[in-house]
Amino acid sequence: MNLSLKQSDAWKWAITLIATVAPLAFPLQQDYRIFLCLSFLAIFIWAFDLIQYAVVAVMLPVLYIVFGLTDAETAFSGWVSSSSWITLGGLLFGAAFMRSGLAKRIAFKMIALTKGTFAGIVFALTITCLIITPVIPSVMGKIVLMVPIAIEVCNALGLKKGDKTAAAIITVIFFALWSPKMAFPTASTDAILATSILTDQYHYEVTWLGWAIDMFVPAILWTFVSVGLVWLLKPAKVKLDKAESIERYRALGPLSGNEKKLGVLMIAVLCLLATEQLHDIDPAWILVLVASLCFLPQLKILEPKDFQTTDFSVVFFLSGAVSIGAVASQIGITQDIVSGLQPVLANHSSFVLSMTLYVFSILANFLLNPIALIATLMGPVTELCQSLGYSPLLGAYSMIMGFNQALFPYEIAPFMLVFSYGYMHMGQTVKVMAVRIAAGLVFTALITYPWWMLVGLV
Q1: Whether pLDDT at 435 is above 90
Q2: 3-state percent breakdown (helix, strand, coil) of the chain, nearest 5
Q3: Which of 50-54, 311-315, 331-335 has the lowest mean pLDDT?
Q4: Rounded to an integer, what distance in angstroms lies between the CA atom of residue 436 and that of residue 227?
């Protein structure tokens, strides 16, 4: 058995080393090849779980500096990015949500309403996520609210970390929040940023209703397709008696003081996140500040030991992963790729353009997070679409749908946050996400693009 494991690790290291040196044979300028070598090294170590992921994340920006690709300010820019801090705030707020008992109370009520079946729980979680999607422009904030509830559902069903059914329930939360965010321009920061670029830089009018007409139907249908993929994890047939669920709920008694206090804070968080466009306070600072309030002696929802026992390694992971995008942008590799696409796409149809941008966005996600990609590529892609005689929204939508895909958790901060709770294992995750990417290609070609033709976008 041990020999088999050693052989398995040897193969993983062999594949990793081959992938690491492969870019040296690419006909690219020297700094591009070095960048790809170092990035592939980290990506494959993460994929095969060969070294603790936080350690690799700390090592990667140092390697970028040592090999002369960038300076420390750029390499460690992830530490000042809001995505890292929103993860920290999210972990603490999630701990408060669970420690107060409020998540358990909601979980028992939900199980009672769904009769405790796996399909019923999946449906209830999905509908809940869809309801809060259009009003909160932070997927991270929504995940912070929903994952603790899903964990309490797992606890109530006797499901532990490592259980396939528990992994499936937690995965539902990510799919049910990350997929429908494409339906509205107010449902996520990447959509808000894309709208801002199109409106402010290119003076292209983008309305809330117009966006919804173009994207609501594809996004909602894609949500149910994505959620359906959790059955690939082969969840068990779970069933918790409704009478038992009601009894457990009643046994919790009246709302405790901590539940009430956290309820007020939760409402405050929801209001602040829903009105981000009015006060312009980043969701990261909202979550960090509110989570910090939980440690006040007057509230005492969280205690010092809760901070000490929280696993913050994911923050290191995310901060290191962000450096991939920062360095890629600085050396210009992504801009050169987009520039090279124009002559290739010049004589092709809008369908080929859309699918190319969609696939390109999926691949680019390995190097940059969606926000960084939109910030650096939305302008060039807009110009590309306009130069070819198409609506810039075609490029914007195609990119956003491509960014909805990811193979590894590090590619998307909300995905990383869900993964950090420890219920999803890398092997299970990659399996489901790989199938989701394949399904997305078919869905875009057969559902999304025909819908855009129907509403007159193309």
Answers
A1: yes
A2: 75, 0, 25
A3: 311-315
A4: 10
Model confidence at 1: pLDDT above 60: no
Residues 94-117 have a mean pLDDT of 75
Both tokens of residue 431? 């399996």
C-alpha to C-alpha distance for 418 and 146, rounded to whole angstroms = 10
Q: Name the average pLDDT for the chain.
A: 83
Q: What is the Cα gyration radius of the chain? A: 22
Question: Which residues, other chains included, contact 444 with Cβ-Cβ below 8 Å and sequence gap of 6+?
Answer: 354, 355, 358, 401
Q: Which residues of 217-243 are buried (b: 16+ CB within 10 A; e: fewer)?
A: bbbbbbbebbbebbebbebeebebeee
Contacts of 315 (CB under 8 A, 6+ apart): 84, 87, 88, 91
Q: DSSP letters along 6-21, please?
A: HHHHHHHHHHHHHHHH
* Nearest-angstrom CA–CA distance, 437 and 423: 21
DSSP 8-state class, residue 255: P
Residues in the chain: 458
pLDDT at 137 over 70: no
**Cβ-based neighbour number of residue 62 at 10 Å:** 14
Q: What is the pTM of this model?
A: 0.69
Q: How far is CA 432 from CA 228, 232, 291, 354, 407, in A?
A: 10, 7, 32, 24, 9
Span 87-103, pLDDT tens digits: 777 778 777 877 777 77
Tell me whether residue 50 is exposed, middle or buried, using C-beta atoms within 10 angstroms of its C-beta: 0 to 12, 13 to 18, 19 or more.
middle
Structure tokens at 420: 């950090």
State the maximum Cα–Cα separation within the chain, in Å, rounded to a whole number.
68
> Is 80 exceeded by the pLDDT of residue 86?
no
